[in-house]
Specification:
alpha+beta
Length: 108
């Protein structure tokens, strides 16, 4: 499991997700409930590149065997005092590690 560069490479980010209608990504924006790789990719393309610089804290990476793992973190975007949370479920596929489910939110 690896993080994309801070350049916010949309193609690379989309490539990290499982190319399946079963992939999920729930985000911070109203209605950002993305079901399937096509919706996830379309969202990123339509939104365009955004500043994703952030400070991570309480990072937890847990593996279960050699082919399944979760990554969770709290983050603070650069220039903000809001605390976000992000979790991802990763599975090793034939073509490498892919995110099958992701969730991003901000605390209240």
């Amino acid at each position: 499991m690896s993080a994309p560069s801070s350049a916010n490479d949309i193609a690379a980010l989309n490539g990290m997700f499982w190319e399946s209608p079963h992939a999920l990504r729930y985000g911070t924006r109203r209605g950002e409930h993305l079901h399937g790789h096509a919706e996830i990719a379309r969202f990123r393309i339509e939104r365009g590149a955004v500043d994703q610089r952030r400070t991570l804290r309480n990072v937890r990476i847990t593996t279960f065997g050699r082919d399944f793992g979760t990554a969770s973190t709290e983050y603070v975007p650069v220039g903000s005092d809001k605390v976000g949370r992000q979790s991802q479920t990763w599975v090793r596929m034939v073509d490498g590690w892919k995110i099958v489910s992701a969730h991003v939110s901000f605390g209240t």
